[in-house]
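Suppose a classmate hands you a notebook page containing two proteins, each written out with its sequence and a corresponding row of structure tokens. How would you begin to make sense of it? This section walks through that situation. The first entry is reproduced here exactly as it would appear on such a page.
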Amino acid sequence: MTKDLLTLFDVTQDELESLFALADKLKREPQLQPLRGKSIAMIFQKPSLRTRVSFEVGINQLGGYPVVLSQEGIGVGTRESVADIALLLSRYCDGLVARLFDHAVLTELAASAPVPVINALTDLSHPCQVLADLYTLRQHGKLKPGMKVAFIGDGNNMVHSWLEAASIFPMNFALAAPQGYHPGPEIVRRAKEAGISEITIMENPSDAAAGADVLYTDVWTSMGRESESDRRRKDFAGYQINAELLQKAKKDCVVMHCLPAHRGEEISAEVLEGSQSVVFDEAENRLHVQKAILTQLLGTATNVRATRPVAEKVQS
């Protein structure tokens, strides 16, 4: 991993394995505090539940001190320039966690800050969530080379991060999305150029779900696009993960959703709350994986770092 975690293109396959082994170690040994004496600034332009709580609790558990900053409080790019905020906070804090709209603001923060910067979500990418998703699949014995992940819905930042993941872990990634809602072509190109995964973008949800090991979805209307919600409900009609679609997948398929969920829209309540759902395991694992990310980038106790491989060594 580089100094920062901005997208999963920053992560190698070996680093993925080490990160998950470190998350295991921190779960087994909660007394470890590799961030003792360190302060982490957390910048939030967007509303947050899982991200804020998992990072704030995780930093505290690691012995650090989280400083939570809102857009109203600091005015990123309005009251003060992005570069000045990065330089100032780096004088006070040992790292920055940022949940922003524009990914370009995140890259400017990282370019200006001498301390590590972690992407806690932008409109382009959500690497912490997909790392937690992969860790959850490993927990349930599903993280295997060639696994089929079928994403049903908008080709948004979650899809971008899954495509990034497909460049470091070999999988069959199939996206079913209406025309006009496909992911950014540059990210698709980079993921395909890695040459280790099969990547297919289509419109038919049943075709995407056929034989899937994982069915994944997200809300049809992401934050910042609320004015499009009526049109999106019409455009995404038929793109729901429900009992009928689940029957197209493998019998032991797991269902994932990054939350918050809109029952009756992108997913049925029956499936979200059913026996094949691992949705709340995903949510919990945000805490464990982010603790490992923080330790990897900021931890001072070298004996905390885990070096043993994950249970299933990845073969590309």
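The notebook's second entry, a different protein, reads as follows.
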Amino acid sequence: MSALLTIKGLSVRFGGVQALSALDLEAPAGAITALIGPNGAGKTTAINCVSGVVAPDAGRVSFDGQEVLGLAGHKLACLGLTRTFQNLQVFGLMNALENVMVGLHAASRGGFAAAMLRLPLLRREEKAIRERAEEMLSFFGLEKVAHQPAEELAYGDQKRLELARALAGRPRLMLLDEPVAGLNAAETHEIGGLIVKIKEQGIGVVLVEHDMGLVMHVSDQVAVLSGGVLIAQGTPEEIQQDPEVLRTYLGGGEEFGLVA
């Protein structure tokens, strides 16, 4: 599979800490690429650089052959690259449907004049945006809470709401930062199934996650960071048997029933 996202030589230093050191990584379309490692390994820093949140000290990032380093989030979304965050980023006073619709308005064509005059173009766009948002809520099992304020939703529903908003704009690549953090086993299993369904639509996924059961079950390839350095990359099976990964991160592999 050809790379949709290509990271070359990405390096970031925060004061005296080298958060990333010359990271090279490729993520294809229609596949799940997991980025794992201990806390402070540089995983979130990497996707923060890709999504324009952090400016790296060195390196390049291209998306579908186009240089995108430094582009703002809304411009990346228009190109087909969206993300979620470790910490929930929902609009608490808006209902679930409005939260998803917000993500779609960034790509609308109707401008200020169209809004003032209520032109037919704007009315058609608003109808399409609402229908797409409703479709996404249904996909993530949230249709019954569509008109409930986001701040009143259960934590697991808020997590799914973020995924719905990120998927609504029909991205080609999604960056998911710990999408099952804080969820119970049943919720984690459900989110894992939804991520696989997203991949099956031909969408690439870069998954940052600490739940190794989920990572090894859903991923097509796994990259392992330690101290900002890429120490291994391969299939889940290869990673589970890599001696350095077992030694530095997976604790000997007992949780997988493996022998280092």
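A careful reader of the second entry would note: Confidence is low (pLDDT under 50) at residues 111-117, 253-260.
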